[in-house]
Write a structure and sequence with these properties.
single chain; 11 helices; Arc Repressor Mutant, subunit A; D-Maltodextrin-Binding Protein, domain 2; alpha/beta; two-stranded antiparallel ribbon
Length: 303
Amino acid sequence: MTAVDPQQLRTFVAVVRLASFSDAARELGYTQSAVSQQIAALEADLGTAVLVRRPVGPTGAGRRLLEHATPLLVRLEAARADVARLAGAPSARLVLGVTPLAVGATLGRALGEVRREYPGMEPVVRVLAQDALPARVATGEVDLALIDGLAAPSDPLPLPDVGPLRTVAVAEQPVAVALPVGHPLAGRGGLALADLSAARWLDAPDLTPTAARLRAATGVDGFRPATRYQGTDLHGLLALVAAGHGLTLLPEPVLAGALGAALGVGYAPIAVPRLVHRTELVHGSLPEGPAALLALLLERSRA
């Protein structure tokens, strides 16, 4: 068996994602027959079928190949982007990726300083989910990112290994459980998270820790989602909490602010286990320019 052709892997991933040979051909700029030939060559090389044709979908072997193909392709793109950054001239571009709860006053001040230094620069801020951002940084789609999540104090966030990226903590805040304002636990302090494992929980993976993350943090079963919330609108999530549709974990300063009070959301700090809402700056090598200056300012803000 020869080495697998990366282009064949890209074509395979596109066909699986779109569940269509013709749609994959349009996206990749190929003819449908070229896509079919690439898949056939891949299957001949591997010695097994990786796709079912009607309806289009991966075979068992194809599902396993997909597990390997996706991170491999990200690493290839990351290598290309990393070398290009190292060899590149100073850049006037600034594209910042942020998770929904990572935007704060520190970022606003740092962006202000960058704009004063580069008055003609137009920064772009893209709000994306945590699981998408490391790969976007590694492949150069965004220059740097601020990613938030749940962690033990001083522990790094459990981010995927997608390339030689630098991660630096820029903020840690206490966490609290969001409750309807009239809930018996609202206003109490020092709760044990495990004691809430049988409660109704909201599943909002783009904003708050998943049930699997809570089970891992506490070592107990439970935390079953009562309602799934898809999106990054914090206002909508808190409205569901206020209406009694479930609990969720958020940074305590968010819940102690005006938004929580206006929506009828109370809170209680979590004391056990020791957890923090951690925000990390993530970036690769950065040529001189606005992105490099912003990274420096954000790193200094933690010092």
